[in-house]
Amino acid sequence: MEEPDTQRAQDLLAYIDASPSPWHAVANAAAQLEGRGYRRLAEDEPWQLEPGGAYYVVRDDSSLIAFRIGKGALTRGGFRIVGAHTDSPGFRVKPNAAHAKGPLTALGVEIYGGPILASFADRDLTLAGRVMVRDDSAPGGLGSRLVHFDRPLVRLPNLAIHMNREVNKEGLKFDYQDQLPLFLAALSEELPPEERFRGLLAEQAGVAADDLRSWGLAVADTQPGAFWGPEGEFIADSQLDNLASCHAALAALPDEGPEAGVAVAALFDHEEVGSESYKGASGNFLESVLARIGSGLGLDGDQYRSVLASSWLVSADMAHAYHPGWPRHHDDQHQVRVNEGPVIKINAAQRYATDDRGEAYFARLCEDAGVPMQRYIHRNDLPCGATIGPLLAARLGLRTMDVGSAMWAMHSARESAGARDPAMLMRVLACFYAG
Ligand SMILES: [Zn+2]
């Protein structure tokens, strides 16, 4: 099953499977950009930018901004920015993680963002992320390594129904402190838990256990992405929220300079925990990169501000598809469906940054791209989630549209969506970049 319009979905699943953590998502994005001729810039060095040039910047290994400068004046096209996030809800391994729990070596984890905890039970889980290691050849004597245990390593087993008779009525509930530590191994007298875990991690990172300094480790699923349905018309994978949008933004970035303006893809870590960090969307990463592009192209302060005022941001994040099992959780007039095209998200309280001008602009872009468009509104009697859209709109004074593809089971360990939507989202983002 390889119709042209599901090739994009195939490519997305491969990207997700190779990106079990935000650090991997950025490393794979960087590798893709290198292959397309984008040149890496370092934030702690001066930049030399040229019209028509393509560049990318990485902040702390898990946020990335890529941009291609148009051949014409920046003052004509402005910045056309697509923003998305590299992180997904789940668990992060604690520093003093390994400990004895009954007959087992268990791993303590913190809850990261708002995962559907029960969806992590009984899955073939593993660990992936970044470890910091002693490296005398690196600045400050510290280096980093990406690690991904490419096999089931840890587990969060259910309790048998015979001991949890109400589970189907009450739902699966965990005590956040006592019942989330992951099962890693049988307890061994020769190898204390901490030593066992550090040994595993050091081996995976290819360093001596003594050289391991710290880690940022996500709990990841090992099941590869899949097409499902009679025609393979749907997809399932972890992290569709929001690697699907990162993937579409990267794919849409032009391979040749736009006529004017600058095409920017900004992928941020830490959205699921509020974005307020050094590399999150509320930090100064995007602001700093845009300002340096402006000064690198010779704009003075007044010209730069006029360019910002003529710019647009597409905040790309996933949308809630209509679930016929829960019809009353949707607004009847704003049901959105998988495989029926990009969704524009609207919220009067500005949890989504779209206004009527942005809605009209996005409708025109979808028309230009030849794809249908859907409109989403959250029910009045349910609290609405937010995106990076309002944060960046407020911080930078950017006109903003909140858009994304429809999906089911947002924040589950195994999310699902439509196989035809990735191609449609990519097409409309490419139209946006083209101006
Ligand atoms: Zn999201």
Shape: globular
Mean pLDDT: 96
Radius of gyration: 22 Å
Strand content: 25-35%
Could you walk me through the main structural features you see in this protein, from its secondary elements to its overall organization?
The protein has eleven helices and 20 strands. With 435 residues, it is α/β, with parallel strands linked by helices. The strands form four sheets. Strands 1-2-3-13-4-14-18-16-17 form a nine-stranded mixed sheet, sandwiched between helices. Strands 11-12-20-19-15 form a five-stranded mixed sheet, covered by helices on one side. Helix 9 links the parallel strand 16 and strand 17 (374-376). The model has no long low-confidence stretch (mean pLDDT 96). Bound molecules: zinc ion. Zinc ion binds at residues 85, 241-242, 317-318.
List keywords for this structure.
globular, five-stranded mixed β-sheet, 28% helix, alpha/beta, nine-stranded mixed β-sheet, binds zinc ion, 435 residues, 11 helices, 27% strand, 20 strands
Brief overview, please?
The chain has 435 residues and is α/β, with parallel strands linked by helices. The protein has helices spanning 4-17, 22-35, 74-77, 167-170, 193-205, 240-252, 285-296, 301-309, 356-369, 388-396, 421-434; strands at 39-41, 54-59, 63-69, 79-85, 90-101, 104-112, 125-134, 142-148, 182-186, 212-221, 226-228, 234-237, 262-268, 312-316, 319-320, 343-345, 374-376, 399-404, 406-408, 415-418.
Please write out the topology.
Elements: H1 4-17, H2 22-35, E1 39-41, E2 54-59, E3 63-69, H3 74-77, E4 79-85, E5 90-101, E6 104-112, E7 125-134, E8 142-148, H4 167-170, E9 182-186, H5 193-205, E10 212-221, E11 226-228, E12 234-237, H6 240-252, E13 262-268, H7 285-296, H8 301-309, E14 312-316, E15 319-320, E16 343-345, H9 356-369, E17 374-376, H10 388-396, E18 399-404, E19 406-408, E20 415-418, H11 421-434
Parallel strand pairs: 1-2, 4-13, 4-14, 14-18, 15-19, 16-17
Antiparallel strand pairs: 2-3, 3-13, 5-6, 6-9, 7-8, 7-10, 11-12, 12-20, 16-18, 19-20
Helix pairs in contact: 1-11, 6-11, 9-11
The chain binds zinc ion.
